Every structure is written in C-alpha cells, then in structure tokens.
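Hi, here's the filled form for the chain we discussed.

Project: internal
Contact: R.S.
Residues: 363
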Amino acid sequence: MIVIARPSPVWRRVRGPLFALILLLGAPGLAAARVALDSFAPLVKQVMPAVVNIAVTETVASDSTVPLPPELRGTPFEREFRNRLRNRREQVIGAGSGFIIDPSGVIVTNTHVVGHADRIIVVLTDGTQLPAKLIGVDELTDIAVIQVSATRLLPFVAWGDSRQVEVGDWILAAGNPFGLGGSVTAGIVSARGRDLGAGPFDDYLQLDAPINPGNSGGPAFNMDGQVVGVNTAIVTPTGGSVGIGFAVPSEIVIRIVAELRDKGRIDRGWLGVSVQDVAASRGHPAGVAIATLERNGPAARAGVRPGDLVTAVNGDPVDSSLGLIRAVAAVPPGGKVRLAIVRQRRETEISVIVGRRPTEQPG
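And the returned structure, exactly as it came back:
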C-alpha cells in the first residue's frame, strides 16, 4: 500500500530501566537531469553551513504492550500491575533537519520534528552542539521555529520566491537522512500545488530529489542557493524514498515564520460553519453552501443561515470550500469579512466579525 507520510519513524527500543525509542523523521527524493551541470559542489559549499541537524528528546506514556501474566488475571494484583504500566514513561529520541535564517540563530524546521520535544539539540556542520528553545509551531502547515544562542554570528540562508519555481527546475535538498548528517540530494520540481489531504492549507511542491526519514524540516534550494521550500512529506510504500517528496513552498513558510517569530502562534480567521461545494447549474451559480453552523459562532451571530450559498468573500469569488476557508483564515481574528450570499434565489451581503480558528476546525 502506498502511504503519504511525514515520513514514517524508524524505531529502536533499548532494553533497560529506561526504554529509548530512536525516531527518524523524513522529507524529499531524487532527480532527473535537464542540461548537464558540471557540479553542484559550489552550491553545496555555499548553503550547507546553514543546514543543521536536530536531535529531540520526548517523554511519552508507555504503549503498555507488556502482556498481563496469566497468574495475575482476576486477582487483586491485576489492577496494581496495570497501574504501573500506565504510569511508566518512555524516552523517545528523534532526529530531523532545519536551516538557519538569521545569524542570531533562528532556525526553521517542521512541527512534527520539534512540536512535542522536551529537549532540542541543534548540531551545526562543524559539530557544535547547541540547545534550542521552541519559538512557535503551526500544526496546519507543519512549520516550526526554534532558536539557539551562539557566541558568534551563524551562517544563514535567504528565502527565494517559490512563485517563480517552474516544473522541471533543478532543486537541491539538504538534511539529515537516516541520521547521516550533512547530506544533499538533487532533482527537479515534478509538480506544483499538490493537495495531500492533510489539511485545508495544503499547497505543496512535488520534488523527485530523494527525501528520507531524517530529512524532515530541511531546505529545498533553487540554483541561486535560496530556500524555496521546506521538505515535509513523502509518498512511500516502504518507509523510504521512492522519488516522490513534498515541500511547503516558501511563499507560505515566509508568512508563517514571520508570525511565529512575532507572536509565537498563528491566528487565523474562523466563521464557525461546515460547508460543501456546489457546482453551477441552471439558475444557480457555483459557490459554497453552508451546511451547519456553530451555535453562537461568528457566522451564526451575523445572521448566516444553513442553506446559504456563499459566492464571494470581500468581493473575491469563491467556488470551493478550500477557497472559502483560506480566504477567511487570511483575515485576523476580530477582522471583518463581507460574504456575498444567495438565499432563496436572492442575493445579499452579510458582514461577519471572524473569530479565532480553533485547532482542527474545518471552517
């Protein structure tokens, strides 16, 4: 079975009083060729000093897979045995990648690498190990920002414009695949605008530069040495690279990183509705139908009703649920959106003061 993954961890359980699990997280794949380049070496020398390895430690509850001894079943000791299993903790160790975007030590990586870590250690290309603190995470785009304190200015890389990236362009992926730090792979951009079904903000670059467990959070560079994507997911039937990887485009990451650095969180607008797409038909425009509303949610308070057909947000047409969600999410909580609505064949406009989007809410 082919699975889309943020790539599957590689686990190792260490016996002893403390159980250690080795977790390696992953990213992008390998490439074709356009016109032959003499070498990627000059580009690698330029960008690799700013690419880092990230080691994380997390304490988690035991999976409690130890079987109940038959001789305890049905005895007063059964509850004590289960309680001890429930209270046992395991140490999870993971490895991922990241890249420095500011000489003061600001680093971008994936949320699934550092989001639940108790301890984060960043390893520079010269072997220097620095503890890092978490600045902020965004679950919906899988982007996180961490920071280290160094006694010197650190090498860093600049953002590129992913909107200028075309299918067929060369791409260079860097990171820590399978714990083999300081590795690079090259390929091309295979496609743009991939929706993996992971969330409403999916808009990935598809890469064929090899990405494997441990590459997660690493950069994808254009040939000018600029970061145009953050390697995040792969399609894999085996857990390793098959040449189909995905990166969050820089046009999305730049905004997320700026807000995380400023506030430590991402605030998105929210209507409090569930919606469904409606195709155009005779006498009916295309739009997004309101299926249900959160009681006392922003849309309900503004007078939006079930069955209303939303055709535009702030004057911009919308014809899909994703389009509506993204348009509203772009408005800061407390801001106002104007919804163009068709209700019982009559057009009207309703202004809604948007709320703050709760975690995992659809609209």
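Let me know if anything looks off before we file it.
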